[in-house]
Amino acid sequence: MTIKEIAKLANVSLGTVDRVIHKRGKVSKKTEEKILAIIEKVNYQPNIYARGLVLNKSYTIVALVPSFIEGEYWEMPSKGIKMAEKNLSQFGVNLNILYFDQNSVPSFNEKVDELLKLKPDGVILAPVINFEAVKLTKKLESGKIPFSLIDSNIPNSKALSFIGQDAFQSGKLAAKLLCSEINSQGTISIISIKNNENHNKTLQQRIEGFKDYIYNSNFIANITLIENNIHLGTANWEENLMQACTPTNNTVGIFVPSSMIHHVAKCIEANFDTMSNIKLVGNDLIANNVKYLKKGVINYLIGQRPENQGYLALESFYKHLVLGKSVPQKKYLPLDIITQENLMYYNDDVV
Q1: HTH lacI-type domain: from which residue to which, for each copy (predicted)?
Q2: Worst-scoring range by mean pLDDT, 16-30, 155-169, 203-217, 264-278?
């Protein structure tokens, strides 16, 4: 079905149909409803190639994400964004990735200045430095620049979309898995391993979800929860981690709400004679975590499909800017439960 055929069915001009499809210009409500009904009935899809040629339009999208060392978590969203660019560049979608040091507010703000000078048509933002990220979203809103959030959400930010996991539910799932391994009794250590003092809302929501599951269980009387914060920048962090792994002689489970569980697994492996009974649940399918999952030191990893987060974030701008379609404000990705037994089925496929 072509625009010309739709115009004929609606008994209107080609220009009127075009204005309705692309939401520009004035059309009476009655005529608009008539045209939209025909479009829905015939399942009309615009010819994107033709539209791109006619409009001769390109869009610059800037992604502002943490820098990484090969094998770290943020390599995966970046990979997904680049894969989307490869597939969408033919439609005039151009990508510029700016990397900042997630442990440095000045680094983030320096890249924000670069971003604003580029005057992008859209922004993909990983708001890991929460307060500074909120300030950036205010600037983007003021400049009427749409933005999508990945990994962590900022409530009431007016983002075009958020793409990531439901962190609270992820925490509840982690608690259920760990409690099933320890027969719902004993001491559980929640260990937050950090490189900085920046508040990470996603990690906090996972911890809250974990606690919520325990607090609302019928075996709460049999569980002791102990929380520990390990700062990798301190001189004695390894000693502190050792103590956090065994806060009591009854420690039977450890939950790490980030991708840093490999540090705990390394400690457990080094002291396996005395810690072999401790069950571990953590997050993210990065190389260092996979190593210990294969060995059986880590019992469960909860995946959040970070490559897909990056891919779908750029794709949301393709739909919004090129297709003129609305996109979901929230796109929660599945919570993958990964074990030794199903690890082989997870690979690098994106979307």
Answers
A1: 1-55
A2: 16-30
**Count of CA atoms in the C-beta half-sphere (13 A) of 153:** 17
In a domain, 146, yes or no: yes
- Let me know whether 102 and 36 are in one domain: no
Q: pTM for the whole thing? A: 0.82
pLDDT recorded at residue 47: 60
Q: Coil, helix or strand for 242? A: helix
Residues 121 and 204 in one domain: no
How many domains is the chain partitioned into structurally? 3
Q: Contact at 8 Å (CB) between 312 and 291? A: no
Burial of 179 (0-12, 13-18, 19+ CB in 10 A): buried
What DSSP line would sit under 170-213, residue for residue? HHHHHHHHHHHHTTT-EEEEEEEEESSS---HHHHHHHHHHHHH
Q: What is the pLDDT of residues 297-347, one digit of tens each?
A: 999 999 999 999 999 999 999 999 988 888 999 999 999 999 999 999 886
185/215 same-domain check? yes
| Residues 337, 340, 344, 349, Cα dihedral to 10° | 30
CATH number of domain containing 228: 3.40.50.2300
Q: Please indicate, yes or no, whether residues 279 and 178 belong to a single structural domain of this protein.
A: yes
CA 118/CA 76 separation, integer angstroms: 25
